[in-house]
Design brief:
The chain has 21 helices and eight strands. It is of the alpha+beta class. It has two domains: 298 residues, 2-methylcitrate dehydratase PrpD, CATH 1.10.4100; 112 residues, 60s Ribosomal Protein L30, Chain: A, CATH 3.30.1330. A four-stranded mixed β-sheet has the order 6-5-7-8. Strands 1-2 form a two-stranded antiparallel ribbon. A two-stranded antiparallel ribbon has the order 3-4.
């Protein structure tokens, strides 16, 4: 490419944070990414595929699929778990909602967002739509802007972090995969960011929480395809002082400063966000896992006392601000599946009782979640169980299992095989595992899409 063409393909301000990020996305190559990052990402992708297949035929997933199929004609992109193709945007939306369908999918410990549900569905839909797009750095790369808005603090403001941060990640990943120049990557990011948003009130009784990251996946895919067609997006979208992404979402944060613009480009090429991605061992909101671990610890250390549920007077759960706002609310009957998987009090009671529904609610009603401003780390949680005539039991964890330390690659494979055991047959499972763990060797990622196509089973039917 000659120097004139290179200049024409530059973002509006190459030295600004938006321009610097878009140039980095354009220039990064698979060979620039450390081998250990590539390896870890392959296992993360395998986990995302596991969650997708498990979630495809849950009740709420089937409702969504039925509605979309009725609205949309047959298209070019596969809706995984179904013997059906749809439009690329609808396929991305549904496949993402399947990954989020059972609260088993990954989460980013700093941003936070659920990377697989944002990036994988958008990439696979784009690949099928544009016919055999090569795999490469796009399959490995996804950049979060969440730290620019103080990460999990967004939860305390009532924003669904992944729905706010996610369009940036999916738009840059798709833009990279389809080979957009840096100026069009900027357009894609600008189009994606103006679609960002998501309300945390979706966590109580709605089924739409399962779909919020799907909106982000769809928005990023749409943005990249519009930019590819020459549609111009918002320039310098992150740093604009009026109506820019950071300025708008930073309002009312009560943080000083309200946003951190330097975080957009901090550590590009040296700090790989892959290492911030965590894999869930439990099918519930990540911020309930510390409480589950606390209760589990007490069950191991005091097996007889913790079985005496009738003598429990109260359960006190202590947590930091972000966890308290997200999962510290009082669960009440009737409680939808979404709310049950988000509630710390319900998670604690379920861990104690295991399937005895009336006893679960008896314990939920004895449980109080408390914000403790003296909690020293954001991931720390504490459980205190008071009994009628027995010693009070206390347990705490600095971070939940899967966070400190993260699940190993071997543990991810174990999870993949376990949760897909009754969803797909052994032959298909072996093929998918092999393709995911060798994804950078594929000629194009539609090879993976082909083996993911076809019916799957409901794991809880």
């Amino acid at each position: 490419m000659d120097s004139t063409a290179q200049q024409d393909n530059q973002p509006m301000d190459p030295e600004g944070p938006t321009g610097e990020l878009c140039n980095w996305v354009y220039n990064v190559k698979l060979s620039d990414i450390p081998s250990d990052v590539q390896t870890r990402t392959k296992y993360l992708i395998l986990d995302g595929i596991a969650c997708l297949l498990v979630g495809a035929h849950l009740l709420w997933s089937e409702k969504a699929a039925s509605a979309i199929f009725e609205m949309d004609p047959l298209g070019s992109a596969t809706v995984f778990g179904y013997d059906r193709k749809s439009t690329p945007l609808s396929a991305a939306l549904l496949n993402s909602s399947f990954i989020q369908g059972f609260e088993l999918d990954d989460w980013h410990s700093e941003a936070p967002l659920h990377s697989n549900s944002i990036i994988l569905p958008a990439l696979l839909a784009a690949a099928e739509y544009l016919k055999a797009v090569p795999s490469g750095a796009a399959t490995i790369d996804g950049h979060s802007v969440g730290n620019s808005l103080h990460g999990s603090h967004m939860l305390t403001m009532g924003w669904r972090c992944g729905a706010v941060f996610g369009p940036s990640a999916s738009s840059t990943a798709v833009s990279k995969m389809i080979g957009l120049p840096a100026n069009q990557i900027e357009d894609a990011v600008g189009i994606a960011c103006t679609q960002a948003g998501g309300l945390m009130s979706a966590q109580y009784e709605s089924e739409v929480k399962r779909m919020q990251h799907g909106f982000a996946a769809r928005s990023g895919l749409l943005a990249a395809l519009l930019a590819r067609a020459g549609y111009i997006g918002i320039k310098k979208v992150y740093e604009r002082p009026y109506g820019g992404f950071l300025a708008a979402f930073g309002q009312g944060s009560n943080q000083d400063p309200p946003y951190l613009v330097d975080e957009i480009t901090n550590g590009l090429g040296t700090k790989w966000q892959t290492w911030g991605v965590r894999i869930k061992p439990y099918a519930s909101m990540a911020r309930t896992h510390g409480i589950i671990d606390c209760i589990s610890k007490l069950q191991r250390e005091h097996p007889e006392q913790t079985k005496d549920l009738s003598s429990i007077v109260s359960i006190r759960l202590e947590m930091g601000e972000a966890i308290f706002h997200h999962g510290g609310w009082n669960a009440k009957r009737p409680l939808a599946a979404t709310g049950a998987q988000i509630s710390n009090s319900y998670a604690a009671a379920t861990q104690l009782v295991d399937r005895e529904r009336d006893l679960v609610w008896e314990l939920v009603n004895k449980t109080a979640c408390n914000y403790n401003k003296d909690i020293p780390t954001k991931g720390m949680q504490r459980a205190i169980i008071t009994f009628k005539d027995k010693p009070t039991l206390t347990a705490e964890v600095i971070g939940a299992r899967g966070v400190y330390p993260p699940l190993t690659n071997e543990e991810i494979v174990e999870k993949w095989r376990l949760i897909t055991k009754n969803v797909i047959d052994d032959e298909r499972r072996v093929k998918i595992e092999k393709l995911c763990l060798n994804i950078t060797d594929l000629k194009d990622i539609t090879e993976l899409a082909d083996v993911l196509a076809g019916l799957t089973k409901n794991p809880i039917a």
